[in-house]
Amino acid sequence: MTGPIEDSNHNPSLSKPDLDVERSLLGAILADVFEALPLTMEAKLAPTDFFHAPHGEIYKMIISLYDSGKPVDVTSVNDGLRTKGVLASVGGASYVAELWDHFGVPGHVGYYAKLIIDRAMLRTILNITQDISLKCRSNPPSVVDVLDEAEAAIYKVRDDRSSSRLVAISTQMTSFFDKITDLRLHKGGITGQPTGYAHLDRLTGGFQKTDLIILGGRPGMGKTSLALNLAINVAIPSQREDKKDLPASPVVIFSLEMGTEQVLQRLLCQIGQHNLLELRTGRISDEEIGKLTSTASLLRNSPIFIDDTAAIRPLELRAKTRRLQSQLRNQGQQLGLVVVDYLQLMRPNGKHNNREQEISEISGSLKSLAKELDVPVLTLSQLKRADASEPSLSDLRESGAIEQDADIVFFVLRRELLKQDNPDLKGQAELQLKKHRNGPTGVVYMHFKQHCTSFLPATNFHPISS
Known about the structure:
Blueprint: H1 12-15, H2 18-31, H3 33-42, H4 53-67, H5 74-84, H6 93-101, H7 109-137, H8 143-159, H9 169-185, H10 198-204, E1 212-217, H11 223-235, E2 251-255, H12 260-272, H13 276-281, H14 286-300, E3 304-307, H15 314-330, E4 337-341, H16 355-373, E5 377-382, H17 399-405, E6 408-413, E7 428-436, E8 442-449, E9 454-457
Parallel strand pairs: 1-5, 1-6, 2-3, 2-4, 4-5
Antiparallel strand pairs: 6-7, 7-8, 8-9
Helix pairs in contact: 2-3, 2-4, 2-6, 2-7, 4-5, 7-8, 8-15, 11-12, 12-14, 15-16, 16-17
C-alpha cells in the first residue's frame, strides 16, 4: 500500500483506529456516490475531520466533482487530484484504486462518518484543553476570561455538530395537533411568557420562545424603564396587570449601560412606586424606609439575575446565559426572558469592515441564542434620528439586519417630550408594535410615572390595527 500510515502531528492514541474506517468510507463513496455521499453530508463530515490528511484531500475532491455534476469514480478522482497537483502527496493513483478495492458498505457510511467525526471532536477537545492549559500557566489577567473562552470553545465544538433539523411531518403532527387543541380549549389565553400588560399580551400572546424582540426608542423615552418593568412582570407575578396565577420565570438582565446598583435602584422604585431621586439622594422618611424594606424583601426573593459587563461580546453573553440556563434546569426551572440593554453597546466577536457588518453579527447571534435556548430575547436598540417625528422601522440604527432578524419590533413613545407645551400629554405613553412576524401590529397605551420611572397600564385601549 502506498501512502503514509498516520500523521505525526496527531495524537496516536486518538487516531490509530480511524485509518481503516476512513478507508472504508472513501471506498464506499467511490463504489456508490449517490447513496453514500448524501449520508456523509447529512452527518456534516468535513475534509478536516479526517485524521489522515490525504484522506481529507481525496474527500474534498469527491465533493468538488459531485457539486459540479461530474462523474465520481477512481478515474475522475485521480484526474482531479493530478490536475490539482496533489496526486502524489495522497499516495498516487494506486492508493485511490486500492481504496475502491477494499470499500465498505455504502449503506453504512453514516456510521463510518459518525466514528470519524467523533474522533475529530476528541482531537479538537484535546487541542482546546492544551491551549487552555498553556493560558493557565502564563498567568492570565483574568480567570473569568479564561473560563468564558474555554466554555465558548467547547460549546462551539458541539454547536458545529448540531444534529439535522430535517424531520418528517408524520412524526410531528400528533404533538402539533395536540397543541392546537390545547390552544382552542384556552382560547384567548397566553401561549408565551406573560408580559404583565393585558393589551400587549392580547396582541402577542405573550413573548414567544425563540423570538428576538427589539424595543426601540429615542433617548429619554424610557426604553430601559419599560424593559425593567417587563422583566419584573415575568419574574414577579404579583406585579402583573393580569395572569398573576401563572408562575414566576427567571430573568437575566445584561446591562451594558448601567451598573448593577443603578439597575437595583430602578427595580426597587418600580416595584414599590418609590421616588427614585429621593432614594438616590438619601432623602427617605422613616415611613418610606419601612416600605422600602418590604419592597427589598420581594425583590430579594425574585429570580432576577443581573450582569453589568460593559461592551460584552455575543460569545461571552451566550456562554453566561447557557451556564445560567444549565443551573436553572438542574433546579427544575426554565429561563423565561433574556434582556439586553442595549444592542449597539455590544462588541462583535470578530473584526469587520464596517459597523453595519458588526451589528449584523450581533443581531444574528442574539436571534441564534433565542432559538438555541428556546427563550425570548428582548433587546433594546437606539434610533438613529433624534427629531420629533414618530419612530419607524427605518429609524433603527443599522436597521437592515436588526429588522430582518427580529420577530417583534416595538417602539416606546412619550408625546409629552415631543410637545412639552401641551400639559394634557403628561404621563401619556405609547408602545407601538411596528413589526410582528406572527401576528397583528397595533398600539398599547400606557401611563408613565416619572417619579419611579414605571410604566403602568392605561385604563382605555384603542382598537388593534393589522
